[in-house]
Amino acid sequence: MTHAGLILFGTQEAVTKRLAQAEVVFEYRSSDASGPAQDRKEFRQGFFCYFDDLWHQINLRNDKQDFQDGLFVTPIATFNERPVREAILNAVSHRNYQLGGSIFIRQFPRRLEIDSPGGLPLGITLDNILDRQNPRNRRIAEILTRCGLVERSGQGMNLIYEDLIRQSKPAPDFSRTDQYQVGLTLHGTVQDPQFCAIRRENLKGDANLLQYARLVDHVGGESGGKTFKSIQGASCSLDGFGGYRAWQGQYSDSIATVL
Fold first, then answer.
1. Is domain 3-187 classified as CATH 3.40.1190.20?
2. pTM for this one?
3. How confident is the model at residue 220 (pLDDT cuts 50, 70, 90)?
4. How far is CA 73 from CA 70, 182, 198, in A?
5. Which residues of 137-151 are buried (b: 16+ CB within 10 A; e: fewer)?
6. What is the pLDDT of residues 133-147, one digit of tens each?
7. What residue ranges of the chain are covered by domains with CATH 3.30.565.60?
């Protein structure tokens, strides 16, 4: 059996004997205090055996943030399923299995940390992570694609960004990433509930990042704020990792001037 077969379909006994580092460790911590986690679960078997169980563990403590929207109260999950699953798939698909460490997923009340051994794949940087793909483990990526879990075009990171934008949450944080690991943090706190209300009102269905930029232009233009061309360069769909933060800040400023 190949390593890809073990990682995705292996029994606990086979994985432990032949590729023990193909393990995902989940921890829940209610605070940043040191000491043992409130909950800890180790998954050392084929990924398809526990993928849904892993999301279930996260969703058990997935609080809702309630916001007033006119006469209605709108609940927004702290951790949306789509970006969480995409982040886990990326970690399993792109980690370096030649290293002995495990993938660690640490859940806190308002953030989720995913650390996977090995730095970014060759040719991938934080500046081009949205535009360039280079799967480290091609067989694993191909199997996940054929199962419909990931996009063939390798747009998983784009989907994470877009989902966070839609819910006015901070950009993915890669500050713990170095040559030895990829450290991704998904923050779950909604920054601006009014952003979500405007997005629902103006953008029905699936919209790409450029449409959000056009909405900013509409809002900012009426209030003397940013124009579409001035924020277009900051759009993360064009400028990569650093662009989203500047884009999000400009968006919030533009909306604040008319609300």
1. no
2. 0.77
3. very low
4. 8, 37, 15
5. beebbebbbeeebbe
6. 888 999 998 999 888
7. 3-187
